[in-house]
């Protein structure tokens, strides 16, 4: 049976951030920690070795594949900072147009530094993603 690699852990979020090599990226990670915590109302938890996630939801696809994931999150990776939002969120394209300098992957939005993006749009992205996921995957 499939076992997801990214599961919530008891690892320390602060310890993880303290081990980020680049000082500016570490500073951005602390700012993101504050923004995500304040905006979501959830405590930060480590998901796997490198994702800082907030809240969680249980998904189940039509294929039968299911698991748990953070509602939103981020990871201060070596190359860029990864922001995790729902790929299917209806406001995604509109928010990305207003977001600032970024690139995208399937579910991720990548930024070089926090100063490149509009913080209010980031907060809106977080709120919209949580609302979308809570409506799409309601807790029984």
Model regions low in confidence, pLDDT < 50 over at least 5 residues: none
The percent of residues in helical segments reads 25-40%
Number of H- or I-type helical stretches: 4
Number of strands: 8
Q: Could you say which overall geometry the principal axes of the C-alpha atoms support? A: globular
Widest β-sheet, arrangement of strands: 1-2-5-6-8-7
**Structural class designation:** alpha+beta
What string gives the helices and strands in order?
Answer: HHEEEEEEHEEH
Alpha-carbon distance between the two ends: 24 Å
Q: Rg, please?
A: 15 Å
Main beta-sheet strand count, sense and barrel state: 6 strands, antiparallel
The portion of residues forming beta strands comes to: 15-25%
User: On the 0-100 scale, what is the average pLDDT?
Assistant: 93
In words, what does this structure look like?
Strand 7 and strand 8 (108-111) form a beta hairpin. The protein is globular. Helices cover 36% and strands 22% of the residues. The mean pLDDT is 93. The chain is an alpha+beta fold and 140 residues long. The strands form two sheets. It has a six-stranded antiparallel β-sheet with strand order 1-2-5-6-8-7. It has a two-stranded antiparallel ribbon with strand order 3-4. The longest helix has 18 residues, at 23-40. The protein contains four helices and eight strands, in the order ααββββββαββα. Helix 2 crosses helix 4 and helix 3 runs antiparallel to helix 4.
Concise summary:
The chain is of the alpha+beta class. The protein is built from 4 helices and 8 strands.
Write the layout of secondary structure elements.
Layout: H1 13-18, H2 23-40, E1 44-47, E2 51-54, E3 57-60, E4 66-69, E5 72-76, E6 81-84, H3 92-99, E7 103-104, E8 108-111, H4 119-136
Antiparallel strand pairs: 1-2, 2-5, 3-4, 5-6, 6-8, 7-8
């Amino acid at each position: 049976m499939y076992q997801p690699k990214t599961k919530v852990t008891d690892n320390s979020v602060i310890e993880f951030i303290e081990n980020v090599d680049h000082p500016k990226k570490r500073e951005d990670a602390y700012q993101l920690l504050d923004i995500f915590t304040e905006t979501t109302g959830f405590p930060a938890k480590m998901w796997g070795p490198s994702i800082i996630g907030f809240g969680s939801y249980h998904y189940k696809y039509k294929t039968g594949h299911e698991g748990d994931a953070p509602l939103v999150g981020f990871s201060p990776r070596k190359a860029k900072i990864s922001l995790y939002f729902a790929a299917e969120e209806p406001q995604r394209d509109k928010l990305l147009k207003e977001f600032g300098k970024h690139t995208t992957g399937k579910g991720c939005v990548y930024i070089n530094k926090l100063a490149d993006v509009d913080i209010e749009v980031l907060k809106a992205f977080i709120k919209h993603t949580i609302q979308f996921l809570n409506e799409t995957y309601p807790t029984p």
